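In this section we turn from sequence analysis to structure. A common task in structural bioinformatics is to predict how a protein folds when a small molecule is present, because the ligand can shape the pocket around it. The inputs are simple: the amino acid sequence and a SMILES string for the ligand, here fe (ii) ion. Study the lines below before reading on.
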Amino acid sequence: MTAIAKQEGFLETSDPALQESADRGEAKLLSYRQLYELWERQQWATQDLDFSRDRADWHERIEPEERFQRMYGLSAFFIGEQRVTDELGPIMRACPTEEQRIFLSTQIADEARHVRFFNRFYEAVGVLEGADDLAARLRATEQHLNESFGELFDGMLKGRVDRLAAEPENTELLVESITLYHMIIEGALALTGQHFIIEYNEEQNTLPGFVEGFQNVSRDEHRHIAFGVRFLTDMAKQDGRYREAIQRTMAEALPIADQVLDPPWAEEDDWELFGYSREETHAFAAQCLSRRLKVIGLAA
Ligand SMILES: [Fe+2]
Ligand SMILES: [Fe+2]
């Protein structure tokens, strides 16, 4: 288990990716109500973070070329958080039970806080020159993303959520949307990026304010994913159609998600980013995913 997973609060979420027993398909999953209560206990404020050393690190200790590479990872998160904040409303509304809708309402607040976290970091550190408010920063940041990112977030996710807003009783579409949102985007992509970015900064002893905030983001994500696993486990038990919807969505989205992890300047398959190989990052994502799928009752 990684150093991050040992930190207080991470294990409490019961994300199967953090439980070795999940390799055998066994995990203790929290109920929707327990997940809500955990949210109440795991609050934090972006305003409490101190970015003064981060600012000095960014401009004085990190070389220009490395700054550019770090920007790619940060941009994907900044924009990713903004996209998922905006898309979660219709998913929340389409959930069949009040307990589920209440939990997802807390998640909307979390995702908004994650956008604010990145905005504060960019502002306090001075990451982008000439972009002075949230909208300008988001526009400037979008230039750093690759094509697969657009396909996944603006094509696959937004397309489904738009349909779901018009047909909130379409539970099969809801299952597809949660598979994409919680299992692929949060589970396979976000947590993988977070894991390596935090580990790299800790090794290099850089950006302490960012690391502190990003650990809180990561703990929130484990809680969100724990909801996704609970929901998909419940649905998969209910009806074979839902099991098929999960599998179909995974098959469609995984190849695209795989490419989102690749930085836009990587022409070969054997790139390295911050000392981690493509193989290492993909293997980490695959292990987390396979544990969660086994718990849901689906083979990876
Ligand atoms: Fe988030
Ligand atoms: Fe999330």
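The pocket of fe (ii) ion (ligand 1) is lined by residues 81, 84, 111, 114, 217, 221 (CB under 6 Å). As an exercise, try to locate the residues that line the fe (ii) ion site and compare them with your own expectations.
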